[in-house]
Amino acid sequence: MPVPTLAVLTAAGSGTRLGLDLPKALVELDGLPLVVHAARRLCASGAVDTIVVTAPPGLREHVAALLQDDPVVDRPVRVVEGAGTRQASVAAGLSAGLDADTLVAATAGPSALAQPAVDVVLVHDAARPLAPPALVRRVVEAVRAGHAAVVPGLPVTDTIKRVTPAREGDPSGAEPVAETVDRAALRAVQTPQGFDRALLVRAHESAAHRADDERSAATDDAGLVEALGLPVHVVPGDAAAAKITTAHDLRVAALILREER
Predict the structure, then answer these.
(1) Which GO molecular function annotations are given, in alphabetical order (predicted)?
(2) pTM, whole model, 2 decimals?
(3) Fewer CB near the last or first residue (10 Å), C or N of the chain?
(4) Which domains, and CATH codes, for the chain?
(5) What are phi and psi of 184, to 5 degrees?
């Protein structure tokens, strides 16, 4: 019997740049909050067994009710309150998910204690609500194939310039170009990111001193693994897994949904 996969779904961000007076994960896309879209697709992958959602402060019960009432979210879901940074929120979700995992193993009897009930952990952002189920499966399969840290990524198509600071006193603020970067080896990274359970726990424990400061906190979990000096592998991403940051992104996501239909 396969060992289960846990997904930590981060939904605690403010969404200020969307220009709306509610957290980003609760913004509606085609009549459903982004967090519900994201949870539905994790479930539809067939590769996720349990989900822990990190909710905006004070909204844990509201988010829990949204997911509990949705007929398409057919996996066990636990909702915890997020923290001040993404790294701290993921750590809180990871802790909650693995605490529940330990409880399940303990109640299952002595034979279940020989190995953790979860061996693969996905970390996903509700801000990428349309990540396809096939992408979720691709990441999980790569971790189970022996790659302990896996991220989806898309080739960079724009020309990339590395610049130096503008000259002091230049009223235009124009930045001098230092070089044109070879984009062939560049990837724009997405979520869900997948990890061997023990490695992700180790990475978060090692970087716990950075978690509470937005200036030092990691913007993705693969970066924490890289900080340990350990390899991260990239599998093909998907354009549908684009991040929603602005109102324009939300309109593009609505178009993607219409095209899917």
Answers:
(1) 2-C-methyl-D-erythritol 4-phosphate cytidylyltransferase activity
(2) 0.91
(3) N
(4) 5-260 (3.90.550.10)
(5) -60, -30
